């Protein structure tokens, strides 16, 4: 029986429920609506909710206990980062009797449309032409108005793509696969499109993919953790694919306006590239990204000014250890 409440559900024989994994940090403002939306979003599935809380100070944990008392809550005891929160939630779900058959990882500011998760889970493990299977499935994401489509699909970073974005801007360059990470072709969002990676606000992961890839990489405190995981999954034969029939609203974040968060996002892009491509290629990639941020800083963008300063420092090319 599918559950009606955010934390109900019992494993089907030999299968287990779907684990809904959420990482919170001072998320009390968005949680009530998120919890209320889960029954529709998870309709048709047997599921259970796990929340990993990164030491919230706004009553997040008490709110969850009040609104969804059967939730498995993991308190990390510190602001451990997104990947560490996902890992803590995965570890808790692994202890359930019978385990779990798939995981839906989502932000607390996501609102799934009815049946979204069922479509994502059903898309998992599908064989792909040319080899591999769907290990990660993602929905269409819309802005808060519920109508404006977010370009959530991405191509793997390259020097030419970083240069294209520096010269043309993300959206104009996005029309040309060689010149941008961002996928803006409207037709890509109308079919089951395989991408190198996708925005991590909401994604379903197969049990086979999770078992093959292991833990999320905690060396990325925030940003690039989903990029690294999708690329690692692809290396192991599990693709990331859009399921266009599934949809959700993402209330968004402040990485575009906060200099601190934009700097972290930018540095982590360079550090991930450094790990996968070596020092010489990463030096060229950093130069291209620095060109982009410098040009935008000249136009008065404070977040780009902060990112450019950080990119010019020696730590920008520090290779983070692998998972």
Q: Mean of the pLDDT scores?
A: 91
* Succession of helices and strands: EHEHEHEEHEEEHHEEEHHEHHH
Figure out the total of helices. 11
Q: Oligomer, anyone?
A: single chain
The tally of beta strands, per DSSP, is 12
- Helix percentage range: 25-40%
Report low-confidence residues grouped into runs of 5 or more: 1-14
Tell the overall outline: globular
User: What radius of gyration results from the CA coordinates?
Assistant: 19 Å
Percent of sequence in beta strands: 15-25%
- Report the sheet with the most strands, covering strand number, pairing sense and barrel closure: 10 strands, mixed
Structural class by secondary-structure content:
alpha/beta
First CA to last CA: what distance?
37 Å
Quickly describe the structure.
The protein is an alpha/beta fold and 323 residues long.
Structure write-up:
This protein has 323 residues and is α/β, with parallel strands linked by helices. The chain is 37% helix and 19% strand. The chain has eleven helices and twelve strands. Strand 1 (18-24), helix 1 (31-41) and strand 2 (47-53) form a beta-alpha-beta unit. The longest helix is centred in the last third of the chain and has 20 residues, at 279-298. It is globular. 48% of the residues are buried.
């Amino acid at each position: 029986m599918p559950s009606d409440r955010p934390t109900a559900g019992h494993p089907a024989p030999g299968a287990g429920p779907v684990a809904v994994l959420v990482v919170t940090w001072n998320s009390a403002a968005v949680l009530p609506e998120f919890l209320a939306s889960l029954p529709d979003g998870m309709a048709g599935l047997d599921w259970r909710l796990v929340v990993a809380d990164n030491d919230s100070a706004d009553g997040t944990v008490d709110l969850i206990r009040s609104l969804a008392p059967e939730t498995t809550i993991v308190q990390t005891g510190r602001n451990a980062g997104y990947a560490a929160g996902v890992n803590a939630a995965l570890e808790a779900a692994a202890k359930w009797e019978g385990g779990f058959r798939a995981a839906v990882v989502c932000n607390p500011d996501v609102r799934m449309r009815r049946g979204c998760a069922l479509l994502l889970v059903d898309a998992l493990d599908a064989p792909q032409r040319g080899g591999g299977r769907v290990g990660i499935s993602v929905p269409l994401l819309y802005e808060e108005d519920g109508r404006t489509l977010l370009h959530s699909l991405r191509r793997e970073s390259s020097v030419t793509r970083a240069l294209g974005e520096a010269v043309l801007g993300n959206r104009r360059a996005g029309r040309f696969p060689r010149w941008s990470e961002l996928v803006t072709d409207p037709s890509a969002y109308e079919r089951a499109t395989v991408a190198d990676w996708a925005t991590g606000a909401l994604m379903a992961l197969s049990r086979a993919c999770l078992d093959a890839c292991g833990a999320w990489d905690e060396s990325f405190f925030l940003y690039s953790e989903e990029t690294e995981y999708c690329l690692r999954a692809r290396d192991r034969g599990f693709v990331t694919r859009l399921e266009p029939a599934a949809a959700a609203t993402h209330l968004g974040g402040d990485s575009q306006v906060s200099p601190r968060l934009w700097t972290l996002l930018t540095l982590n892009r360079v550090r991930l590239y450094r790990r996968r491509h070596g020092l010489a290629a990463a030096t060229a990639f950093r130069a291209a990204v620095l060109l982009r941020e410098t040009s935008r800083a000249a136009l008065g963008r404070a977040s780009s000014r902060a990112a450019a300063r950080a990119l010019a420092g020696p730590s920008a090319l520090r290779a983070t250890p692998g998972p």
